[in-house]
Amino acid sequence: MTDTASDIFAALAHPTRRQILQDLKDGELPAGEIAARFNATGPTISRHLSVLRQAGLVTERRDANRILYSLVSDRLALSVGDFLSTVCPEQIVMREVRKRGSGRANTKTAEA
């Protein structure tokens, strides 16, 4: 496992960080709003956001005096997918079967 994958899995190890990622799935949020969703201090949430940012799972941008965080969803999906493919080669086969199956479903829907 590469250091990058280790960083990602270490970031995913804490339930607060997993919840932050879930909260960001619908779009960008300011740091204060993220912190308000938890029963933890601001510095604690800031540290969790830093771990997620260092793992490349979230990005931040400044807007005046606010820091806005966004999910980097493709990074998470690719990293976890790569790991699963190495540990569970059947995952690759299952993914291909699902792709073919959804392609047929789309074709049938288009024909109807």
UniProtKB/TrEMBL annotation:
It comes from the Bacteria. GO terms for molecular function: DNA binding; DNA-binding transcription factor activity. Keywords: DNA-binding, Transcription, Transcription regulation. Residues 1-91 form the HTH arsR-type domain. CDD domains: HTH_ARSR. InterPro entries: ArsR-like_HTH, HTH_ArsR_DNA-bd_dom, HTH_MetalResp_TranReg, WH-like_DNA-bd_sf, WH_DNA-bd_sf. This is HTH arsR-type domain-containing protein.
